[in-house]
């Protein structure tokens, strides 16, 4: 019967009546050192390399966002505010919605700089900072999504019910709608926060962003329901445009309108889908029993994925100015006039006008209803 000595970890076997050679004893420290070098150190090096790679990828994506998307969102939303306020006597109902949407998007774009430098999700380790950032971001996230949703409904009402909506689509009603949207955004954030905060007051690692009930509300109220409404309204708008001109074909203006509708739905879906899928996957997973509250945050478990989906969500606020205003004829005309007024030098004025005309050509169909203001 074979017996194994305490040195069986080195693969050395001793039988009764045999003497262990001295060479094995001298090799034991070497084998132990080799085991330590080959077993532990490479694993640590691999883990460190993986974290380093994730940091490099996150930094690269943050640089791309900061260089390309952030200037578009920051400057574009400021231009929407400045130009529309400068021509407030000509402000239409959609312009009022554009201004409020630009305010929400501008705040989100400014907040995105914090996320850009939050490569390791470090601020989620500080309960107060995490809760404050989550509250601030959720209010503006809800307001941005709610304004996009309401604007889709308003555009369908303006186009399909143009003869019967004059009594309901007034500036007073639009201002009231904007106030209710901001109130709904604040309520959708503060009411759940007040409810869950009472249940987690004694938790040192409590963060508003990690509460499962709040995350379910964010997915349903901040993505599923708005996307369903936006998709429905713009599909009805597209059907109205196609039906109105099916006998004589779509004119260039209507073709541009349909392309803008498609861009609106696709950009909203593409930008917000990763964030909500990321949250939904976490919600469908059961929390590990006995895990500390600090260790249950899915953003700690997948920092790179959380960083990417956050940047994708912020990209929607950067692209909204291009889709809703710069592709609309009303804002383009105001922008041309604003530049002409601000550029006193004739040569510079002609250069800016020529540049705008090359990038944004004038429309030749003045008889059509302007989609940028009527829809």
From TrEMBL:
Single Gene Ontology BP term? positive regulation of G protein-coupled receptor signaling pathway
Instruction: Report domain G-protein coupled receptors family 1 profile positions.
Output: 76-324
How does the protein's chain sit in the membrane according to the entry? Multi-pass membrane protein
Which stretches are transmembrane?
55-84, 96-114, 126-153, 174-196, 216-237, 258-284, 304-327
Q: Which GO terms describe its molecular function?
A: G protein-coupled receptor activity; nuclear estrogen receptor activity
Q: Which InterPro entries match?
A: GPCR_Rhodpsn, GPCR_Rhodpsn_7TM, GPER1-like
Q: Which GO cellular component terms, listed alphabetically, does the Swiss-Prot or TrEMBL entry include?
A: axon; cytoplasmic vesicle membrane; cytoskeleton; dendritic spine membrane; early endosome; endoplasmic reticulum membrane; Golgi membrane; mitochondrial membrane
Query: Any idea what this protein is called?
Result: G-protein coupled estrogen receptor 1
Q: Which organism is it from?
A: Carlito syrichta
């Amino acid at each position: 019967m074979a017996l194994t000595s305490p040195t069986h970890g080195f693969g050395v076997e001793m039988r009764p009546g045999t003497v262990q050679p001295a060479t094995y004893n001298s090799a034991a420290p070497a084998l132990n050192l080799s085991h330590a070098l080959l077993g532990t150190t490479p694993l640590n090096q691999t883990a460190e390399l993986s974290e380093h790679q994730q940091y490099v990828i996150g930094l690269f994506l943050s640089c791309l966002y900061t260089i390309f998307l952030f200037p578009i969102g920051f400057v574009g939303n400021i231009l929407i505010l400045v130009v529309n306020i400068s021509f407030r006597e000509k402000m239409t109902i959609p312009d009022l919605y554009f201004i409020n949407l630009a305010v929400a998007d501008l705040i989100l774009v400014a907040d995105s700089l914090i996320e850009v430098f939050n490569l390791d999700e470090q601020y989620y380790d500080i309960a107060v900072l995490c809760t404050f950032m989550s509250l601030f971001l959720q209010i503006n996230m809800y307001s941005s999504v709610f304004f996009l949703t309401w604007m889709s409904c308003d555009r369908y009402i303006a186009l399909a019910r143009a003869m019967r909506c004059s009594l309901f689509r007034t500036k007073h009603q639009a201002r009231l709608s904007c106030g209710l949207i901001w109130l709904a955004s604040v309520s959708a954030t503060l009411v759940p926060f007040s409810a869950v905060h009472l249940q987690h007051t004694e938790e040192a690692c409590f963060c508003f962003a990690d509460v499962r009930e709040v995350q379910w509300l964010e997915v349903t109220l901040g993505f599923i329901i708005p996307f369903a409404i936006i998709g429905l309204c713009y599909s009805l708008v597209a059907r109205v445009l196609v039906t109105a001109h099916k006998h004589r074909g779509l004119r260039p203006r209507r073709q541009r309108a349909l392309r803008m509708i498609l861009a609106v739905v696709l950009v909203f879906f593409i930008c917000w889908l990763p964030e909500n899928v990321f949250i939904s996957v976490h919600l469908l997973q059961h929390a590990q029993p006995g895990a500390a509250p600090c260790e249950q945050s899915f953003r700690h478990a997948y920092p790179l994925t959380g960083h990417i989906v956050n940047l994708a969500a912020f990209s929607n606020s950067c692209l909204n100015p291009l889709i809703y205003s710069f592709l609309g004829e009303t804002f383009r005309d105001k922008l041309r006039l604003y530049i002409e007024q601000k550029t006193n030098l004739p040569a510079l004025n002609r250069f800016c006008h020529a540049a705008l005309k090359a990038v944004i050509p004038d429309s030749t169909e003045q008889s059509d209803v302007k989609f940028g203001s009527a829809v």
